[in-house]
Design a protein that fits this description.
Blueprint (H helix, E strand, L loop, with lengths): L1 E10 L2 E11 L4 E5 L6 H9 L4 E10 L2 E2 L5 H6 L2 E4 L6 E5 H15 L7 H14 L5 H4 L1 E2 L5 H15 L3 E5 L7 H14 L5 E5 L5 H4 L4 E6 L2 E6 L1 H10 L2 H7 L1
Parallel strand pairs: 3-10, 3-11, 6-9, 9-10
Antiparallel strand pairs: 1-2, 1-4, 4-5, 7-8, 11-12
Helix pairs in contact: 4-6, 6-7
The structure holds adenosine-5'-diphosphate and magnesium ion (2 copies).
Keywords: ATP-binding, Nucleotide-binding
GO molecular function: ATP binding; ATP hydrolysis activity
Organism: Cellvibrio polysaccharolyticus
Length: 249
Amino acid sequence: MLRITDLHAKVEEKDILKGLSLTVKPGEVHAIMGPNGSGKSTLGNVLSGRDGYEVTGGSVEFNGKDLFELETEERAREGLFLAFQYPVEIPGVSNMEFLKAAVDARRKHLGLPDLSAVEFMKLARETSKRVSLDQAFLKRGVNEGFSGGEKKRNEILQMMLLEPRLCILDETDSGLDIDALQVVAEGVNAMRDKDRSFIVITHYQRLLDFIVPDYVHVLAHGRIIKSGTRELALELEAKGYGWLESEAV
Ligand code: ADP
Ligand code: MG
Ligand code: MG
């Protein structure tokens, strides 16, 4: 599914990722934890192809293709989905239009016909119900005036509609109340499948009580300094990151 080998990347002339390697197989859920500023979001941004992030070394293979040969939109069509820590607002474009365009592009790539407006509306309504997002949000501008929790629900809605192969959630739990956290977790759990993988970036162990990962990795100073299973997350919660960082230096 995803093979990251010795990835180096910089942002504004500053080296952030310094030799990161990670392999994610179909069906696996990997959690990435680590101190603030360690490069977690940078990893997500580099993978999704966001502007301003320069890859200076290493390689990433996604679905057997060289990820860096693909434009951002192609990555999405190929089935890569990134849920941002701070979702963008796109005033003036209705959420429904935005979602339909994204779903049409993904379906086209998969060789499936476009859904009619009526079919899509039905699907979008059913899916919004599953994420407890009022249908009124489908008509509003993308994320325009949405609360933090509503933006996250909207992201999970988008993720469910797109049916990606690999979902990256970057601190999707930050600032969420427990109900919204459960919506995110239930959404992810409902989508877990032998062919779909997740990278869950999180600061806190808490989310991993709801989304139980197969592997947990610690990212510090731009590299993965330790990998383990769920127990590692519990250990980190109890002991913090300091012991690992001093071990790794
Ligand atoms: P994390 O998500 O682990 O908290 P980030 O990947 O957001 O860490 O940031 C890693 C480092 O890169 C930080 O020092 C941060 O200030 C820097 N950085 C990230 N994005 C940018 C950017 N767009 N412009 C300048 N510096 C950035
Ligand atoms: Mg951060
Ligand atoms: Mg971050």
